[in-house]
Amino acid sequence: MVQKRNTFLILILCILWYICSSTNNVIGKLVLSEFPYPMTVTMVQLLSITVYSGPFFNLFNIRKYSDMNWRYYFTFIVPLAFGKFLSSVTSHFSIWKVPVSYAHTVKATMPLFTVVLSRVIMKEKQTTTIYFSLLPIIAGVLIATLTEISFDMIGLISALISTCGFSLQNIFSKKVLKETGIHHLRLLHILGRLALFLFIPLWIYYDMFSVLSHTAIANLDYRVISLLFADGVLNWLQNILAFSVLSLVTPLTYAVASASKRIFVIAISLFVLGNPVTWMNIVGMLTAIIGVLCYNRAKYFQRSQKTSLPSYVNDQYQKLIPNGTHNQNGINQNLLFKPSNLSSGSSMLVM
Predict the structure, then answer these.
(1) Cα separation of 139 and 350, whole Å?
(2) N or C: which end of the chain has fewer CB within 10 A?
């Protein structure tokens, strides 16, 4: 009975996540078409995370984060906040310049960036199967790019930079979660709030005066203002839902759900926004998504083999968390995820 209830809860959360994500992308495209300020849209989303998260987390008793020393804060948290802002801005640039469906197809290359960056930064080696699983992703994105009717080079480059940025965030966010025991939602709140305050001066310099003189703001166009507000709320909600799903399922299940969500977003954007596509374009999109599923499956098998290693690995893992609170069995109570749930096989941040 409990298992059925949990399955039903996960299903409902996934459906809500898919709806929020697809609606958020459609609204984002609409607002950027009429209000072409990607940085301002990003700042609205960061403001939403900052304003809504505190009261929401306190209402549901989300545990407070542990103290970090200033060196750790400036070494990891500040760069993560910078990366969140840069990734979000370039993501909005890509949605502004190219169709949502194509932008999300390009973002399917995240496993490729994750593998390369993990190899360069963390010295992680992957299995041959994982390397081969990247081929359909690359092929699918190439087909989609060559057959994209509304192709724009700035849109492509922005989508690639955004994907690379999110990959870096995923790698280092998991490291922070492991080493500090911070709740994943609290980390989202910290990064959003810090990114907002860090880039307010930049926003004032580049966007504020142009935004204030834009007809939609000067004339109080409630449609554009409502779209901006809805975009911020939906972005915050989809982050909450994505993290909630991730905390309830295995990394493989989450990765499959995330890939399915991308298909859902692409399909809804094509249906609602009606941007023209060719059959070869659709084939490219599907090939890239199938490649992502293959990668997730290969990653799962690699992770399964690692978990069969001797138990001293757990002892080494516990040493990574100096400030954690352990129960009588030596389990750190500040961690929501098990170690296996923090591997590079699943995305910690939402695109």
Answers:
(1) 24
(2) N
Asked if pLDDT for residue 200 goes beyond 50, the answer is yes
The rounded distance, in Å, linking the Cα atoms of 173 and 171 is 6
* Neighbour tally for 294: CB within 10 Å: 19
**287 in any annotated domain:** yes
**3-state DSSP helix/strand/coil % of the chain, to nearest 5:** 80, 0, 20
Q: What range does the domain containing 200 cover?
A: 2-342
Distance CA(139)–CA(274), nearest Å, equals 25
Residue 332, SS3 per DSSP: strand
Q: How far is CA 231 from CA 30, 44, 109, 225, 274, in A?
A: 10, 8, 25, 10, 20
Per-residue exposure over 139-172, b if at least 16 CB sit within 10 Å of its own CB, e if not? ebbebbbebbeeebeebbebbbbbbbbbbbbbbb
Q: Is the pTM of this model over 0.85?
A: no
Q: Is the Cβ–Cβ distance between 13 and 248 less than 8 Å?
A: yes
Is residue 351 a part of any domain in this protein? no
Which tokens sit at 130?
């994982």
Q: Does the residue 347 lie in any domain?
A: no
Mean pLDDT of the residues in the chain: 84
Counting the structural domains of the chain, the total is 1
Model confidence over 295-305: pLDDT tens digits?
988 888 887 77
Specify the 3-state DSSP secondary structure of 326.
strand
| Domain annotation covers residue 18 | yes
Q: What is the DSSP string of 136-191?
A: HHHHHHHHHHHT-TT--HHHHHHHHHHHHHHHHHHHHHHHHHHHH---HHHHHHHH
Residue 339 DSSP symbol: G
Report DSSP letters for 273-310, one per residue.
H-----HHHHHHHHHHHHHHHHHHHHHHHHHHHHTTS-
The two tokens of residue 295 are 């990668």
Among 192-201, 205-214, 253-262, 293-302, the range scoring the smallest mean pLDDT is 253-262
Structure tokens at 321: 């968390």
DSSP letters spanning 229-265? HHHHHHHHHHHHHHHHHHHHS-HHHHHHHHHHHHHHH
Instruction: Give the span between the Cα atoms of 61 and 70, in whole angstroms.
Output: 26
